[in-house]
Amino acid sequence: MLYTDPCYQAYIDILHEELVPAMGCTEPIAIAYAAARARDLLEDEPERVVIEASNNIVKNVKSVVVPNTGGLRGLRASAAAGIVAGKADRVLEVLADVKEAQHAQIKAFLDEKDIEVVESNSGLVFDLVISLYAGQNRALVQISHYHTNIVLMLKNDTVVYENQDCDEMATNSLTDRSLLNVQSIIDFAETVDLAKLRELLQCQIDYNMAIAEEGLGGDWGANIGSVLLDTWGDDVKIRARALAAAGSDARMSGCDLPVVIVSGSGNQGIAASVPVVVYARELGSDDDTLLRALIVSNLITIHQKTGIGRLSAYCGAVSAGCSAGCGIAWLHGGRFEEIAHTLVNALATVSGIICDGAKPSCAGKIAASVDAGILGYEMYKRGQQYYGGDGIVTKGVENTLRNIGRLGRDGMRETDKEIIRIMLGDNSPFPAEK
Q1: CATH (domain of 361)
Q2: Among 137, 162, 187, which residue terminates a domain?
Q3: Domain check: are 150 and 233 in the same one?
Q4: Are 393 and 331 found together in one domain?
Q5: Which H or E run contains 68?
Q6: Residue 89 lies in a domain
Q7: How far apart are CA 10 and CA 381, in angstroms?
Q8: How far apart are CA 285 and CA 293, in angstroms?
Q9: Strand ranges in 48-144 using DSSP code E only, listed in sequence order
Q10: Residue 159: count of CB within 10 angstroms of its CB
Q11: Residue 71: which CATH number?
């Protein structure tokens, strides 16, 4: 791809927009970030807090540990941590600097203050409003569409900031993702000047491998990585799955190590990168080859999620794990034909995995999705594939990806509602939190 191609700079910009550090599951961290912004705006300790959240946010906050809180979970704990100890200028690392001594202060705020959670009626998949009250004063921060997209800030009746002119794709503030396609992604990965992305991708390697190693070495979540290795040994195909799963287990259980996210998700960031790094080290790939393979995996993940949406009943680990298979194909010398077949084969295998919120079982779903990505490539090498007309598979990788987007975005909308009803109880839109 020539540097004059409109996709060239756009793809660089997309990677810089998507590959950002975050500490903890991104939905509770978004709550903490909004709460910290609102506290700074209020300029006083709030007496009352109202959290207005869409159901998909609740789904992804309910079961994960909020990092640096001493093991607390839920929407109220996320907001309390942001208010008491968050640093809003750290954005998705808003809780990174919380001291252990502040855990008790967070717990006291949670126990003593009136923190109300109500359901958003905006109709948006991702919508969060934090309102803080102190005496006659009120501060409000609203985040919509994605985790850092502040669309409204109010101090009493004064609008401090407003940007409501954006849809879910937020094309006015983010680079146009409709430019993405598999052929162009591969051309870009092969030709881009790596100096423009090396530091970004090295950060992804360093952060995501560190939490993966921590996940294997510690006792986190369901310890899926250790189970895989203990059961099937240390072959690279198992190790790639195990380390990715271990990173997720640590992250879901409150590990305070940061992750470089993809498409708004740390689990997707881990699944898209860790297996590729594991394979590169096994193969003895040079640094540049690894970086180009990560570009393939990251951008194909983002491409898939553009059609599906950031939050859905369709598990994002599927998108990332199958894309990791594409990055692994690249490491073995595969280009468009190999990668396209790998992706379609993998998606045809695991596209039925649902998202029922962030929690330890995400690690198992990551392991299954990475396995499908590896299987997709091994199928291609042996002359095996799924054909157009086989279920949701259609001739041509982009046509199949459009079907996946339609399935995740439209077809699973009612599934998403039913999942939330099952998780939260038919008679209560939001969980009782302790």
Answers
A1: 1.10.4100
A2: 162
A3: no
A4: yes
A5: none
A6: yes
A7: 32
A8: 10
A9: 48-53, 114-119, 127-134, 137-144
A10: 10
A11: 3.30.1330
Q: For residue 170, give both structure tokens.
A: 């937020």
Q: Which residues, 6 or more positions from 36, have their beta carbon under 8 angstroms from its beta carbon?
A: 82, 83, 86, 87, 88, 94
164 has a pLDDT exceeding 80: no
Rg of the chain in Å (alpha carbons)? 21
Same domain as 143, residue 71 = yes
Query: Residue 12 and residue 14: Cα distance in Å, rounded?
Result: 6
SS3 label, residue 380 = helix
Q: Which residues pair with 130 in a beta bridge?
A: 51, 141
pLDDT at 169: 42
pLDDT tens sequence across 52-84? 999 889 888 888 899 999 999 999 999 999 999
Nearest to 321 by CA among 341, 351, 286: 351
d(CA 370, CA 376) in angstroms, rounded, equals: 10
For the CA atoms of 400, 403, 408, 414, what is the dihedral angle to 10 degrees?
A: -150
Q: How far apart are CA 198 and CA 15, in angstroms?
A: 11
Q: Is the pLDDT of residue 171 over 50?
A: no
Q: Rounded distance, CA 344 to CA 326, Å? A: 10
Cα 291 to Cα 304: distance, rounded to the nearest angstrom: 20
Half-sphere exposure of 115 (CA within 13 A, CB side): 24
* pTM recorded for the entire structure: 0.91
pLDDT at 428: 56
Amino acid residing at 167: D
Residue 419 lies in a domain: yes
Q: What is the 3-state secondary structure (H, E, C) of 152-216?
A: EEEECCEEEEECCCCCCCCCCCCCCHHHCCHHHHHHHHHHCCHHHCHHHHHHHHHHHHHHHHHHH
Residue 327: CA atoms inside 13 Å, Cβ hemisphere, count?
33
Measured between alpha carbons, how far is 341 from 335 in angstroms, rounded to an integer? 10
Note the pLDDT tens digit of each residue in 7-27: 999 999 999 999 999 988 889
